[in-house]
Write a structure and sequence with these properties.
Elements: E1 14-15, E2 29-30, E3 34-39, H1 40-51, E4 60-62, E5 68-73, E6 87-90, E7 100-103, H2 114-133
Antiparallel strand pairs: 1-2, 3-5, 3-6, 4-5, 4-7
Helix pairs in contact: 1-2
């Protein structure tokens, strides 16, 4: 069990909500938020899983090149994030350049819960491995 807990949940993420989905304007992310960056394929699968989960999905950035997605998570998450194939950093240290909103900020879920994101990324990785290993019967 991971005993490291983020410093804050709910009410502290500050993002520019005026940047619409698909906008070419650079999204503004103000501390305190951390960003969990993952490969796009795993991230897109995780977004679908999170949309169906009770915790929901917070704002998600895409890098416009199709390489990665970045989930906004509570501050302090970077201190204990250890999910293979991803990295977590405080905003300002690794903001994606040329990023836009895949899931724009909204009032329901300001950030994604790190424990819920961790589970969704694990489920997404298992799903991708299963699909990649599938060989249709001739």
């Amino acid at each position: 069990m991971n005993r490291c807990r983020p410093a804050c949940v709910g009410g502290s993420a500050v993002v520019d909500t005026q940047v619409p989905h698909g906008s070419t304007a650079r999204p503004e992310i103000s501390p305190p938020c951390d960003l969990v960056t993952v490969p796009a394929r795993q991230g897109l699968e995780a977004v679908d899983i999170l949309r169906l989960s009770p915790g929901g999905v917070g704002p998600v950035l895409h890098d416009r090149t199709g390489d990665s997605l970045a989930f906004l998570v509570p501050p302090g998450t970077a201190d204990c994030w250890d999910v293979p194939g991803s990295f977590c950093s405080p905003t300002g240290q690794a903001e994606p350049s040329g990023a836009g909103w895949l899931v724009p900020p909204h009032t329901d879920t300001e950030v994604t819960d790190p424990a819920v994101l961790r589970a969704a990324l694990g489920q997404a990785a298992r799903t991708i491995r299963l699909v990649d290993g599938y060989e249709p019967v001739p």
